[in-house]
């Protein structure tokens, strides 16, 4: 009988050895070793998370908060390494999403959803 | 350079050949060929989806709707094949979740989340 777990471990290894992961890891380490950049990114993420939580709980986001968020985004936009990290995170997210689509294709076919659905 | 896509396709094949998928597919076909069971399941799913949407949109769910849902669940609970299907779907969902955890482990380590976080 097939053992998908062994294959999943192999895939994790491939992912870890991928160009995308290597770049992401390097940028991550660079920023972690740069106190100013790390603080800047931490603050930005903290703010993003707080706004997301408010949105999810249906709370109002004040104009002041929107302006503060924009300002903080303008600050991180000036930081080349942080912007690169965010780009690589976006690429990694896309990659993991694409892999996930491939893996769950048998299930999609079973339920006849999305592009597999015959008209 | 590593190619995670080939490995993802291999994993999809393993998943398709797994005991879990085989059982799920068989139950799915049995129910699709049984008009009464199919109708019962479709109605139940339709209702579940409607209630979930209401919850997500923060709409009130009436006592009548809760009672109707309970009644419909009691009906499907009497149907052995439907209950088996739901059990197998639960198992498949668990399996896909477990595989996903393995695959994204390198990323979890990078961000130091969950059990990888040192105290
Ligand atoms: Ca199909
Ligand atoms: Ca760690």
From TrEMBL, chains A, B:
Domain of life of the organism encoding this protein: Bacteria
InterPro entries: Com_YlbF (IPR010368), YheA/YmcA-like_dom_sf (IPR023378)
Family indicated by similarity: Belongs to the UPF0342 family.
Name the UniProt record assigns to this protein: UPF0342 protein C6Y45_08235
Organism: Alkalicoccus saliphilus
């Amino acid at each position: 009988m097939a053992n998908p777990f062994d294959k999943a471990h192999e895939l994790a290894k491939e992912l870890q050895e991928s160009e995308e992961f290597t770049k992401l890891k390097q940028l991550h380490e660079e920023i972690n070793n740069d106190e100013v950049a790390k603080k800047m990114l931490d603050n930005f993420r903290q703010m993003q998370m707080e706004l997301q939580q408010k949105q999810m709980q249906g709370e109002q986001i004040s104009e002041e908060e929107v302006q503060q968020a924009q300002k903080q985004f303008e600050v991180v936009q000036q930081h080349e390494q942080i912007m690169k990290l965010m780009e690589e995170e976006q690429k990694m997210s896309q990659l993991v999403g694409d892999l996930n689509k491939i893996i769950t294709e048998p299930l999609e076919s079973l339920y006849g959803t999305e592009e597999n659905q015959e008209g």
